[in-house]
Known about the structure:
The protein has 218 residues and is mainly alpha-helical. The chain has nine helices and two strands. The mean pLDDT is 79.
Amino acid sequence: MRRLLKIENKAKLLLAAELALILSSLSWDTIGTFWIGFIYPAFFAICACVLAGNKHLLLTYLALAVIAIVAELLPKQIIVRLIQFSCHIAGFFFLAREIFRHSFFKDGVLPTDRIFAGISGYILLGLFAMLISFAIIDLQPNAFLNQITGKPPNPTDLLYFCFVTLTSLGYGDIIPITQPAKIITMLTALSGVLFLAIFISSLISRNHEPLRKDKHRR
């Protein structure tokens, strides 16, 4: 059990869950919101395992997950959707804090553990951007435009757009139309660049710490 809770296994577990969630997007167009009711709870369960080292965070995260799943079964009113997305956002915040803490700030973490945690955190940023974009589309259905089809992007297209924006690739086939959509697009691109800069500098500085300590001892 202790081995399972080490950050290396946490990060690998979360990374596998994130990749599974992304790959499941291939069938989102055919299964509709089925993934919300079945695939997303599985993702929540794995994320709960990641937070299992902190009982308070674990219970809070599970409570948010249950509320979000119950909200999915209720009539699609705006207030219900807002509650659901608020729970998702809060859950992502707790998860990101745990992963980023091990990626950047915690001492005594092995470089490989830090790398896996950093990769998981980077993908988590893309999923978080997708979640916010979903919330915007719920309130403004024409917030984004797929210039190829001339229609708003479907969930799979939106996932693709968020990761293309996060990596600053920007093909331009999907564009933000409304002001909230433009702001979240800008923040997604900015967070992707800043995360990589901070993560790489953190790895370099951590690797040089033993050398600095040896110099001081001499």
